[in-house]
Design a protein that fits this description.
Blueprint (H helix, E strand, L loop, with lengths): L16 H14 L4 H6 L3 H16 L6 H15 L2 H15 L4 H8 L7 H15 L6 H10 L3 H24 L13
Helix pairs in contact: 3-9, 4-5, 4-6, 4-7, 4-9, 5-6, 7-8, 7-9
């Protein structure tokens, strides 16, 4: 990789102080500033909207574990063939699961991975919502309830899947590239 973030040239002339502080926190906690954040940095309002939604969905209160939310990100991104998200969130799945093969298995075909029936039901719903949103019916929600999810969990599954569908489309549109560091993480 050549350090390219995306095909668009939207880099700000100078980062705002809040963005500099946020990026410094990323460096401290993650060891890098994810390229997705750099791509949004041209507009503080857009960056803040993206990070607020991301942080709420992926780190906020939920009946879903952090790993399960990352699994949704990978399953949805696999359907959408999103190179950025498969690389970044595949690394997160490896790290959170402690299984270096799981990220790739999830990216290729989550149905072949050794997942619980509850996780499989969650991902089947996320994939159907990605591929055929107009065909989601009460039976799909009932299957999630039967698997042990609450209505709040169903909201979180749907919101996470929807967020990554949006994110995948932006990444595809601008040819967003993952940070090189993600390729070696949790191996």
């Amino acid at each position: 990789m050549n350090g390219k973030i995306s095909a668009l040239d939207l880099a700000p002339e100078e980062l705002s102080e809040p963005t500099k502080a946020y990026f410094a926190k990323c460096e401290e906690k993650l060891g890098l500033v994810p390229n997705v954040l750099k791509a949004y940095a041209f507009d503080d309002k857009k960056l803040r909207a993206f990070t607020d939604m991301y942080n709420d969905l992926m780190l906020g209160e939920s009946g879903l574990s952090k790993l399960e939310r990352e699994m949704i990100a990978v399953a949805v991104s696999s359907i959408n063939h999103c190179y950025y998200c498969l690389t970044a969130h595949g690394a997160a799945v490896r790290q959170l699961s402690g299984d270096p093969a799981l990220g790739e298995m999830m990216a290729m075909n989550f149905r072949a991975a050794d997942l619980s029936p509850k996780q499989t039901a969650m991902l089947e719903f996320a994939v159907k919502l990605t591929e055929q949103p107009a065909k989601i019916v009460e039976a799909d929600r009932a299957a999630l309830r039967q698997a042990g999810f609450t209505d709040r969990d169903i909201w979180d599954i749907a919101s996470t899947a929807a967020f990554f569908n949006m994110s995948n489309r932006v990444a595809a549109a601008i040819d967003m590239r993952p940070n090189d560091e993600y390729h070696a993480m949790a191996r």
